[in-house]
């Protein structure tokens, strides 16, 4: 019997091969689904951790210590306690010991943390030696500039070191402020200080004998944490450790626990969504196989009738008949399972073992094949139960009766119910509907709507085709008449039209959804990165960074200096290069980026420059004396400080070397350092240098070098000078006389007034986004763009969002803001933005200009991370499933066309002998089912539009529901018509190949 089955399969190769291929596709997809779930859940965990900021990967514990608990080993003991309680070796645990205090200077105090952090010297650049003994500290560059203190100087601090000041052993600069090491410094523990803390040894903190101090321990998971530990394990360890550590006095913040839960929930989204798509695919597969077998059985009707006439037993007939479909299906199932073996991904969510995943794959393939064989048995049932007379007919019977119409009616009603459910869910308030899950009816709405539309169209196609055929015969258009009558009389047309329409609809929906998801990820990545490539760098100051980018790229084609301050929502850019380098969007302040740059950067006066390796200051002290410092900026952005010493008495020239100004320097500011003291060795031998009383005022008349300088008329121009706007800066009154600029301190005794060159606008132009626009509509708005400096701001435009820093933020020009602060300092995050045209050795070129690179990122890399999160992963599977549905529908179409090829060829051959032209015969041979495919394509396109827009449930592409930018359009004509065109090509090829090549007499070729 098995030999008979094989011979029957060989005699009908085309349908058998098609059934084999359809089963390979469906069984392979079913077997691959568990492997896909395992692979994508692991990739999702890794990608989410990679994209998460360090704040989200941290567990921070805080404990207040009283005076008795302050010991040198407090940090080490706390780190040990936290490590043992959590019990995850993959977490990096570090401790910070901090005291709230203040620097004391000239009777004034400035709040500043005194802190010790495990191994801090390995994560900073030091100008000096790492503190190692009690009383030694390291201060950051901003504090050094603020208090004019450098390595080797002394610094009074309260509590504990008012009478015996600290020794500043080093000035430090954090290389990567956003590294995992500095996690705790970004959490709001006790407030965020304006200046970075004073770093020291634990013995120094103990020696300060503070009344109270704070112990902070942070456990940070690396970006590869979830590649080694399951999210639920991380969550459970943190949950169990919290009460234990709480009993020991720790207050906890657990963003890492939230991240682990979010990752697990996102994994569950994949676990739930992929099987839904798989079920849709399997149902579609079984329907397609049912149609293919049902119409393939037409070729076996005569064989079954002859077997019945010869008295063959019913079980034998069933075996012979079903075997012709079952054998190709079994072979296809094995082939599909074998094709899925290379996709083995091992364990996935919740530590599911590789063997469990493999068993699920085998089970899915088995269910697919069994369902296919059951669909074939149902399809063969009518032929097996039909009488011999009906089986021996050459023309298949038409379907009629109330059941046929009832099934269609139920399908239409169900589709309308699903459409209403989907529409009502999509129309809900997104805030109220976020936590609600869409129902199965809503999820099935696109497919059922497409099936129902196909059924309705098929009901219309038959009568319409019959009428067209009659009219074509009356007018003598035989080709049109044959094609129309083919559509009107073939029983396969209605169900096939519905199947093809559903396939096209779901494929168009999947393609457009995938397009929207991909664009969402790319747009978010572009917003969070800002340019094609971004380098995170460390530089001595902002001016050095600006000078380096302009020296490497003098024409401004591919590099731009940027200072990002996410904590205060400020992005400072070199506006001269904004149009060339940034990935600009209209939401950032307007579609015309050149106009935005012009608003950010108003015309500025020429800087005051002086050239020479030695500078001469002409100044006058009106009563007493004071030390005068000049701050200049070299051509490469480096800070040059010239100490002209004690200025006393009448108008005098003071000459000092100025290293770095031989090629020219820009004058930034003058600073008057309080009470004057003569240098060591001045005055009578053996006596300390005499002190001069603080001056009532100092007059500056000229500053010259060997190659040019600044003369008295410039100093006498009041418009060229201003006082600083920085926080805590000492006020002074400025006035001019024909002899120059007069600086009068408000408090001549305890003050170090500063005067800056005014080469900036009165207010800093800024593009305001979100609530910042309302905030800066105040009478006198000020912006803290850089640490320790408040700049007066004027809103120059509105935006929806600002790159990197988000929706409630400000966009400003870096050079203008730098000129207004006058401190030559740094920023929260120094960056270099580059286009793809940047040179490959950019990092080395930056290093030559004293700009060190410690990290980088690209839009493509970040977009790839977002593409591995839950919604894109499930949508990719939906896209693959929809593509397979098109192939399955095409396979069913091919089987039906191939089955009808022989009788159709015989009919055309007879007509050719009666005078039908070859051209008309070819049209009749190919035209019928091409029209069916064309109708299904149009119907699928029509159904895809409401399915993707009106009925689409609100879906956040990102698990964290990021919404800084408006969501991209749900439907674009390009991808929609491209999907329809791809389906059209597949259907046309199948029809042409399955129809065969007609002979000259009109029959089929062999």
Automatic annotation (TrEMBL):
Cellular localisation: Cell membrane
Membrane spanning residue stretches? 270-293, 317-339, 359-380, 401-420, 440-461, 496-514, 877-899, 929-955, 975-994
- Principal localisation: membrane
Key words, A-Z: Cell membrane, Membrane, Signal, Transmembrane, Transmembrane helix
**CC annotations in GO:** plasma membrane
The record gives the membrane topology as: Multi-pass membrane protein
Which positions make up the signal peptide? 1-32
Q: Which residues form the ABC3 transporter permease C-terminal domain?
A: 880-999
Checking InterPro entries in the record gives: ABC3_permease_C, Macrolide_Exporter_MacB
Molecular functions (GO terms): transmembrane transporter activity
Similarity-based family: Belongs to the ABC-4 integral membrane protein family.
Give the protein name, as stated in the record.
FtsX-like permease family protein
